[in-house]
Amino acid sequence: MKSYEVNFDGLVGPxxxxxxxxxxxxxxxxxxxxxxxxxxxxxxxxxKMKALMEMGFQQGVLAPQERPDVAAxxxxxxxxxxxQVIERAAKEAMPLLVASxxxxxxxxxxxxxxxxxxxxxxxxxxxxxxxxxxxxxRSIEHPTTSRxxxxxxxxxxxxxxxxxxxxxxxxxxEGAANHTRFCCEYGEAGVEFFVFGRSAFDNRYPxxxxxxxxxxxxxxxxxxxxxxLREDGVVYAQQNPNVIDxxxxxxxxxxxxxxxxxxxxxxxxxxxxxxxxxLESKLAKVGGKFQSVCVPRSAVTVDDxxxxxxxxxxxxxxxxxxxxxxxxxxxxxxxxxxAYLQSLTSSGxxxxxxxVFDLKQSMQNGGGPACLRxxxxxxxxxxxxxxxxxxxxPPLYGSLTAxxxxxxxxxxxxxxxxxxxxxxxxxxxxxxxxxxLKLGAVYPFQIN
Length: 448
Ligand code: SUG
Prior knowledge:
Blueprint: E1 3-10, H1 26-30, H2 38-54, E2 59-62, H3 70-75, H4 82-92, H5 94-101, E3 112-115, E4 125-129, H6 136-139, H7 142-152, E5 159-162, E6 179-182, E7 191-196, H8 217-226, E8 234-238, H9 241-244, E9 255-258, E10 261-265, H10 272-285, E11 291-295, H11 302-308, E12 314-317, E13 323-328, H12 330-333, H13 335-345, E14 351-357, H14 360-363, E15 373-379, H15 380-385, H16 394-407, H17 420-436, H18 444-447
Helix pairs in contact: 2-16, 4-5, 16-17
């Protein structure tokens, strides 16, 4: 049976702004308080989805969330009408209003961890929504994420959904941003590669000194258990704590994998040799030949990687078996990174082509091409069971761009977040969106 990797991209929400909310994420910190363009951000994301669809890849879309999250503000003690809740939060605790307005759900690589049916004990595709417990503004995403994923992958014969792990730092889980899968064909059993930043219960694993390690070993192990993965089908590796301290807040800022290939930076992991050997032997057991492409620090420094987001690229398989790398334009702007990419594609290896995209609005908050997509490997039968409303087509692209043009503001700055009108605009837009994407009622304002 045919199988595919379907990329579901997060649609940028109408409140996209630069809140400076993510300590440890260099771009988020350095662009704090700048004014944003939600409209441009959403159109940039849609342009990437359209381009991939036109290149022949399976492309889907994942809906944004209701923001400001008034219910979250109410849980923090703000009361009155929705407008009063927003006004009071703006007056008394602006950082909490800013957090409740973040459009961070656009980075859907963090929405969930997904295991394809060929890897799981019950033969279904498993999803575990990420608790995103490290940052308050992200920790409020998972209830709606679960409802949206449930509406997209509703068929229980093929899809199994797990609630987010316990909401404590010991089970800090950032979803697919620290998860990669190696395989021969997407529909065949593969090896799932979980990268963690620290252990919550075992102090033999070193932790970073400066910035938080968001993903714990124990969270990754829990996800593997929930999904019913074989021991032989899982490899765990620790991220190098020194690179976390240099701004590599997720593994997908320093490594990306696809098919039988891992593309990574020399400094990305601890115990790299052992890890590569385990990946090679486990992939061999399912008939695969593991290949790794290591980018040496002499060619590209960790700082270059953090600034350019070279590794936050999408590594995609072309029909002839070669691979294509989708990179943000910041890679072209960095001389060393661009020179490296030229040498990589002309070296005769598997990665033959690089395509550049302008995702500046998202990049300024630390979200590159790979952050914006959730990969779901599906066979033909499973793909047919996905809610067809979320699969990208030329007419859907047309409807979504018209919807963005109609509802989104050109500019947004911090003071605009205090305007209760923004909530009404967001709800009006999302109500229409759930009809366009055929999602049914998924948002708090549609349910309560
Ligand atoms: O969690 N930025 C996100 C970026 C997530 C990128 N995802 C992956 N690497 N997979 C984060 O740090 C910034 C929001 C702000 O500051 O307004 C933010 O949440």
